[in-house]
Amino acid sequence: MELELQRGDTTFTKKLKRAKIPVETVTGKLLKNKVGYITISSVAEKTASELKKNLKKLDHQGAKSYIIDVRNNPGGLMQQALKMSSMFLKDGQPIMQVKTRSGKPEVYKASRKLDGGYKVKKPAVVIINGESASAAEIFAAALHQSAGIPLVGAQSYGKGTVQNITQYTDNDELKLTIAKWLTPDGTWINKKGLTPDYKADYPEMAYITTFNHHQTYQVGQSGTDIKNLQIALKDLGYYSGKVTKGYTESVAQAVQAYQQANHLTVTGKTDAKTMRSIEQAVINALSKSDPALNKAEQVLAKQK
């Protein structure tokens, strides 16, 4: 395949070769102090084997402890969560319980059948947040309650149901709730979530989904975009008022202060250039620090 591209005033062509791109759900790297840092983005068909692979790789590199990050992990396959959890538990320890409408809960326990005999015996911490759900919560709860592994971060999502998914066409599927799952101690976390032992999270501006660059905002207007603007300016240190959806004089003053500090035309209005600048300032600020990861490292250091 050949594409014609334009960059500025220059036009050029590039040849592209189609190839399969493997989608990995687990990544790992070695941090300072020999801490193995593993992120799990979702719980899919190969997540357990990917987790084991990364744990072994980091172990070979000299990792003495692990941070398992399941923030923003929406969950996925229960069977994979069982296999993942079993690696951190002694055989026979409970991973979860599943309770149907009638009958006693079925208890799932760690076993060689699930983990193939591979066990993690080094200190570990799990990081969660408000987007950690379903199978990610099964994993976090199992490690926390059955292995005593601390949870760091923010309250998790709270999805305590078991669902079957039937695909009918490319665009249609049926999700049928067939049971509810409980943590090892029998707690149903649905709409409640897991509470971390150590609370630490990004500032609120990290969870702004979009910045609108296509409209100029000014005093008298209102809307969600203006609320997001206030959140960003507040966390960046320019706005100290109450966060609302209204573009008030106080917001205009905060925008003026930001514009002046960042060498923009001082108008008090948020045009596309100002919004892009604020968006980049948010990205830069968030890239400099990860409060939950920092706290997790501190917790591990105390365990040694």
Layout of strands and helices, then pairs:
Layout: E1 2-7, E2 10-15, E3 26-31, E4 35-40, H1 47-60, E5 65-69, H2 78-86, E6 94-99, E7 106-109, H3 112-115, E8 124-128, H4 135-147, E9 151-153, E10 161-167, E11 173-182, E12 198-199, H5 224-235, H6 249-261, H7 272-287, H8 291-303
Parallel strand pairs: 4-5, 5-8, 8-9, 9-12
Antiparallel strand pairs: 1-2, 3-4, 6-7, 6-11, 10-11
Short description:
The chain has 304 residues and is α/β, with parallel strands linked by helices.
List keywords for this structure.
alpha/beta, 8 helices, 31% helix, six-stranded mixed beta sheet, four-stranded antiparallel beta sheet, 304 residues
Question: Could you describe the 3D structure shown?
Answer:
This protein is an alpha/beta fold. It contains 8 helices and 12 strands. It has a 6-stranded mixed sheet, with helices on both faces. Strands 7-6-11-10 form a 4-stranded antiparallel sheet. Helix 1 runs parallel beside helix 2 and helix 2 packs parallel to helix 4. It is globular, with a radius of gyration of 24 Å. The model has no long low-confidence stretch (mean pLDDT 94).
